[in-house]
Design a protein that fits this description.
The strands form two sheets. This protein has a four-stranded mixed beta sheet with strand order 1-4-5-8. Strands 2-3-7-6 form a four-stranded antiparallel beta sheet, with no helix packed on it. With 392 residues, the protein is an alpha+beta fold. Helix 6 runs parallel beside helix 8 and helix 7 packs antiparallel against helix 8. Helices cover 47% and strands 13% of the residues.
Length: 392
Amino acid sequence: MNFDFSGKEEAFRKEVRAWLEAHLPDDLRGRAFAASRADAGEVRRLRAWQRTMHAAGYVGMDWPREFGGRGAPLTEMVILYQEMARAESPQLVNRGGVSMLGPTLMKHGTPEQQRRFLPKILTADELWCQGFSEPNAGSDLANLQTRAVLEGDHYVVNGQKVWTSMGHVADWCFLLVRTDPAASKHKGISFLLVDMQSPGITLRPLRQITGEAEFNETFLDNVRVPRENLVGRENEGWGVAITTLAYERDLLTFIRHISLRNALHRLVRLVQERGRGGDPLIRQKLAELAIGERALQLNGYRSLTRIARGGQPGPEGSTSKLFWSHLDQELALTATQVLGPYSQIAEGSPWAPDHGQWEFYELLARGSGIRAGTSEILRNILAERVLGLPKD
């Protein structure tokens, strides 16, 4: 494993650090580790922040220059994410578009699709949501049943999606549909780009334990999608989706590290502000969390080294997600122990520490073992594909 960055890369780190210190708005700094994405006003502020980052050349850095990027190496992307975490900057609001759909369109999209959609992904002028999961197609995504029938120049889509993150504020959705119900499960699937303002789309917010509704149920009733919005070939969308999911895995690894490091930085300050720095149990817990966060970073470096040498990502994505889920919940628990009853006070009260972020974070962390791959599924993946144990 290579732990060192080159002189050029360290110079880039200094450049990014100085820029973030000069341009990150005070009202966004340090308030992102448990920020809601369900509030339309917050989303507007985050759109503006992405546009500022884009104007400076820090959005889609790894995209090829012909698509509006800088052609930057993966190491510079890692440095950017590290410095965003250090500055306690929020993540990109259109991260699904930038890190999942964008690379998918570069590989599978037509030149017309690339010209139409890629620029507005980078600037956050068009926000994207993901329409993959269904009530009976979560871990077994290929079991999806949402149908699309070609009628003339349009696909007519009927069905239901669930866990549509940010669907209520998204402008567009990249959608998986079944176009050949007679084909085998992984065949007969197509990948469509759908305007969220299309007639026939109904969103039903899913209220979470935090009180917000970032997730949605999405109902599609005779939604007409232009044929030119098909990505790749009809009935071959599973291969397109695999590309998207591969980028999602890499994206989530970076996002988790940003959010976890942001929360850890703030927790250390919280301990200092509350005068708990002399408590040996609290100090021990902070040390455990810091070691865990560092282990996650080094595991990421292992994967980065393999990719830089021309290899493919290994099982690190599953191990990192599994370990991150544990650390996230342990960090939230430690914060509640430091704050005591104050950890239950939500945003809006003058008594709420850090504007209620800790109350939000503790509730949000309850779902860490479920979202982006349940811990049970991940353990099965590691047991079967890494350790060679018999299938469950």
